[in-house]
Design goal:
The structure is a single chain. By secondary structure, the protein is an alpha/beta fold. The protein has a 7-stranded parallel beta sheet with strand order 8-7-6-9-10-11-12. The chain has a 6-stranded mixed beta sheet with strand order 2-1-3-4-5-13, sandwiched between helices. Helix 1 crosses helix 11 and helix 5 packs across helix 7. It has 2 domains: about 130 residues, NAD(P)-binding Rossmann-like Domain (Rossmann fold); about 180 residues, Rossmann fold (3-Layer(aba) Sandwich), CATH 3.40.50.720.
Length: about 325
Amino acid sequence: MDLDDGPTVAVLREGTEGLDTRDYAVALRAEGLSVAYASTPAEERRLVAEAPVVTGVRVDEGLIEEFEGVKLFAAASSGTGHLPTDEMTDRGVAVTNASGIHAPGIAEQVCAHLLTFARHLHRAPRRQERQEWRHWQAGELYGSTVTVVGQGAIGTAVVERLAPFGVETVAVRHSPEKGGPADEVVGYDAVHDALAQTDYLALACPLTDETEGLVDGAALATLPPEAVVVNVARGGVIDQGALAEALGAEAIRGAALDVTDPEPLPSESPLWRLESCLITPHVGGSTPRHWERLAAIVAENVAHLTSDGDPTALRNLVAV
């Protein structure tokens, strides 16, 4: 990729998760890149015609028409299903995503949920509302078995952060032969064997044909009654109706959901009314280091394209 006197990277104006893309432009400049920020639609059309790299949350087909010399579109999100990827690759534009930048925060949230249920802290808010000073018997995370489904960046980060807690970790992944940091790694064909020995189940897998509805009534029945389910994957990985029934019948001890299907979770869902179910509005990936981490990936890819030119070796490549 040849760089002329114009900007190397054009930053589109739409932000994500309440974060301002002006700060993204600052982070990219801190990586040593020549950056132009587009604050209006007209500026976006002008800048994407000049810069070889464009980055942002989304891009419409009208803007793609201006992609005259663009070689890379760096999506500012992990998901790219909302992007016209085919149209971009047809124009010779490689597409990358932000995969991995959310892993530290999501992994920390998983650990927070595990500790909350281990210490029974989920009981506190309603008792505080009632000004009720009544003791409960807390437990310990130490010595428990935590099963983590998915061993991408998030699942791996979860297992790594659990190491100091003295727990046994079991990882479920599509290709168990790849191993990982968990004490035991199994495939999806052995998921019920893993569930049967699970105290805490953390879901951190992508939503695929294999994982959709993975935690259904049968899976919940396999879990021990004291088990807790934590979902930071996608809402569709869990049968929410079966989960509500299991929690209501105390067939499992608790659940923490950062993702639901649909989002937002409808007000009539029984999950809202269960003390044993903690619900957060898809905030696991929220981090003040979003732009800093993404800028480092973009800078690495720009350096690669400048020196090598082969887009197939780009980090976080989605399509080319």
